[in-house]
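Translate structure to sequence.
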């Protein structure tokens, strides 16, 4: 357990938002529901590749491009523009995981400053947290669009700490993705891994400082630590 963080930095996609509803969106447009997971993984892959090549692409642009390619092979002869728009609209209407609201409120009661840092647009967590009734618990919603590089690039984590006026070692990244945890650790930022499905953490990534089953469990551990 790291020392008490001055700032808790939340990843957004999958860490706070529940992407399971996207499977229904794929089914509604006539595509296999399992493509939702394939699409999101491919979106991240392409975004990371562009970042390594020196670009800082817009999340929605990459997501739309990947989605169009996937749907084209499953929906021949159909209106791809309408199908892509329907799925992308669903991404902007997601809810949070059940542990998020009580966990976020417990962290705030414990005196922690809360912010988000997403590879997408800041409008996404704004809508997500507003729908969940916890937008006011967060003091800042940050996007890598302003950092110059997607996570897990070092610049993204350094940007978050700098924007909030906190030393990077006095922050705590919270993410469900091991690659995000690894990126934060490489940048000198302590990290907590949220493991809702009891998965095994990959040994090839830097180990998290905290492992929690949800945001509520994380809040309890920080309060006890």
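Result:
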């Amino acid at each position: 357990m790291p020392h008490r963080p001055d700032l808790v930095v939340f990843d957004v996609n999958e860490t706070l938002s529940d992407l399971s509803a996207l499977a229904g969106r794929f089914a509604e447009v006539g595509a296999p529901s399992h493509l939702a997971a394939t699409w999101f993984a491919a979106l991240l892959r392409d975004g990371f590749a562009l970042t390594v090549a020196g670009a800082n692409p817009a999340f929605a642009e990459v997501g739309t491009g990947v989605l169009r390619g996937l749907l084209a092979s499953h929906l021949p002869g159909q209106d791809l523009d309408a199908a892509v728009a329907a799925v992308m609209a669903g991404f902007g209407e997601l809810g949070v995981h059940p542990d998020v609201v009580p966990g976020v409120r417990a962290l705030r009661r414990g005196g922690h400053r809360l912010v988000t840092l997403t590879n997408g647009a800041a409008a996404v967590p704004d809508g997500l947290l507003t729908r969940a009734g916890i937008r006011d618990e967060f003091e800042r919603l940050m996007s890598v669009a302003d950092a110059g590089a997607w996570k897990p690039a070092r610049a993204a984590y350094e940007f978050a700490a700098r924007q909030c006026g906190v030393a990077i070692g006095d922050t705590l990244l919270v993410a469900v993705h091991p690659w995000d945890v690894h990126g934060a650790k490489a940048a000198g930022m302590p990290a907590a891994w949220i493991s809702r499905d009891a998965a095994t953490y990959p040994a090839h990534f830097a180990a998290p400082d905290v492992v929690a089953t949800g945001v509520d469990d994380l809040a309890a551990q920080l309060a006890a630590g």
